[in-house]
Amino acid sequence: MLDTKTLSTALILILIIGSGLHLVNWRMHRDNPGAKWWALGLCVQTCGAIATAVANAGGAPIMPLLMLFNVLALSGMVMLVYGTACFSGHALPRAVYTALGVLIVVGIGWATLIEPSATTRLGVFGLVQLISNSLILSRLGYIARRDGAMGVVVLAASVVSLFVLMGSLITWQLVSQPEIAGLYANSDVLVLALLTLIACKTTMIFGYLLLSSGYSQARLEQLALSDPLTGLPNRRAFERTVTQRLASVRKTDRLIALAIFDVDHFKQINDTHGHDAGDAVLRHLGRVATAAVRPHDFLARVGGEEFAVIFDVEDAAELVTAANRLRLAIEINHARINETAIAVTVSVGAVLARSENGLDFSNLYRAADQALYSAKGTGRNRVVVGEVEPVSMAA
């Protein structure tokens, strides 16, 4: 038959294993803003749980020491909250941590030194768990939007389960048995509470590990789809987005507009000012172009001094207006290299097409590239709108 002493030992073993896993995770993910605090929080929780178990094992515990050990265990929970908030990029106010600290110290202190009561201590433990897990839950949405659902679903399910079950068990304890002798008392509620903690803590430990994995995977994907010089999406990301837009416009029978632009006489800039200056010009151009396009347009650097944009427009006139707005923004905003102003202009080739069967990224890009070639050949610093050749559907 299960008893509280056996279950407490099992919970401590799980916490020890979890602490070890998270110390390794911290070492593997040094750039992860949450990994350090998850590891430290679990280690502090584990130390507090071990010390509390030892204090209760010898009969009547020394109350000041018991208070210290209880506070230590709950402090680890606060560290987990702090780590999750840091990891999400949306910090909680300091007042939240202050309030939790006051609740822990005052609640545990009252229940150990002033009016010793194992039931009150259990209630404080449960309340801190409920508040802490609610705060963790409030940060998971930000993480899911940034890194995807991996880890968030597991952790959210664990948090919600712990929230519901611990709340129910605390209520049951207060109604059925207002007073218990201690941690190892013969109580069905304590047994169920420890089983709940074992199950939820196990899944939460792995949930945090999955968050780290999702964070790393999202960063790798971001690196794979980003241009390291300008920070803009790269050609791979641009091709993926064009393909997605083509699939979307097929369903809505809308137009898709694609423009390619590159820097006029870029080789001359490199030869005159050096390649570092050329890189600075490209970074400058990326910033200016980003400010010139609208939020629903998609800008990317697709190679060398060449950039591309998907414009969200309704007709050719709107496309020309959008492309010229971009061209003029670059023309009037000179790049400054070592206090030297460098005039930069771009030529733009654009196409507007309806997504017919067979139209793909290659067709669009080739047509826009031909229009860009025409813009270069007719004087540069201008916009030329080309046509997409019909796609043959013959076998």
TrEMBL record:
GGDEF domain segment(s): 254-388
Stored InterPro entries: Diguanylate_Cyclase (IPR050469), GGDEF_dom (IPR000160), Nucleotide_cyclase (IPR029787), Rev_trsase/Diguanyl_cyclase (IPR043128)
Keyword Transmembrane helix attached: yes
Enzyme Commission number(s) of this protein: 2.7.7.65
One annotated GO molecular function: diguanylate cyclase activity
UniProt xrefs under PROSITE patterns: GGDEF
Transmembrane segments: 6-25, 37-56, 62-83, 95-114, 120-137, 149-170, 190-211
GO biological process, one term: cell adhesion involved in single-species biofilm formation
GO cellular component, as recorded: plasma membrane
Protein name stated in the entry: diguanylate cyclase
